[in-house]
Amino acid sequence: GDSVTQMEGPVTLSEEAFLTINCTYTATGYPSLFWYVQYPGEGLQLLLKATKADDKGSNKGFEATYRKETTSFHLEKGSVQVSDSAVYFCALGGSGTYKYIFGTGTRLKVLA
Amino acid sequence: DTAVSQTPKYLVTQMGNDKSIKCEQNLGHDTMYWYKQDSKKFLKIMFSYNNKELIINETVPNRFSPKSPDKAHLNLHINSLELGDSAVYFCASSQDSSGSTEAFFGQGTRLTVV
């Protein structure tokens, strides 16, 4: 069945460091791909999305490119801030399963 | 104006009790979901409704019964609560059931069964 695999956390970085969180997927068909962010005590917020191969989603300095050849959607940010500390989820939808499938989440901690 | 709102935010109850969580969306979406997030943050789909019709029931115990009185509301009733039901429950909605557009999530209901 469809699945999403993302790197284990936690990831601890210093402020202004470069961030990469890896995400790969398995799906039949052509899914849409999403990154969500969850701050402590809150629900999930959409961070960015891409709906077809080679699309790049971007928001708040975060970017991810839909790579069909490597079935990947890695999240990157050039310079993280303390306020980016949260749990990040990679997800897929639109593969005919009528649901969103989430990765296990990666906790990011940014130190001042 | 909150797009997806669920109540209550916190729920503490004893084993064996029955409880309900309510969810409403004001986005005009056709599809609504319940997800369960465990203590390790893993998110698992429980139910999905499209225009008030159940389209996904992901092997959830019969003690969980969703109800959708109209397409803007999806409530979750849980009978005979067990310790293992303790988790955060998220309601979500999307434009349609295709999954090709993003889902919008409520703030979650933290259920603690003691």
What does this molecule look like?
The complex is a heterodimer of chains A (112) and B (114). With 112 residues, chain A is mainly β. Chain A contains no helices and twelve strands. In chain A, the strands form three sheets. In chain A, strands 2, 5, 6, 10, 11 and 12 form a six-stranded mixed beta sheet that branches. Chain A has a four-stranded antiparallel beta sheet with strand order 3-9-8-7, with no helix packed on it. In chain A, β7 and β8 (62-65) form a beta hairpin. The radius of gyration of chain A is 13 Å and the shape is globular. The mean pLDDT of chain A is 95. By secondary structure, chain B is an all-beta fold. Chain B has strands at 4-7, 10-13, 19-25, 31-37, 43-50, 53-57, 64-70, 73-78, 87-94, 104-105, 109-113. In chain B, the strands form two sheets. In chain B, strands 2, 4, 5, 6, 9, 10 and 11 form a seven-stranded mixed beta sheet that branches. In chain B, strands 1-3-8-7 form a four-stranded antiparallel beta sheet, with no helix packed on it. Chain B is globular. The mean pLDDT of chain B is 95. The chains are: A mainly beta (112), B mainly beta (114).
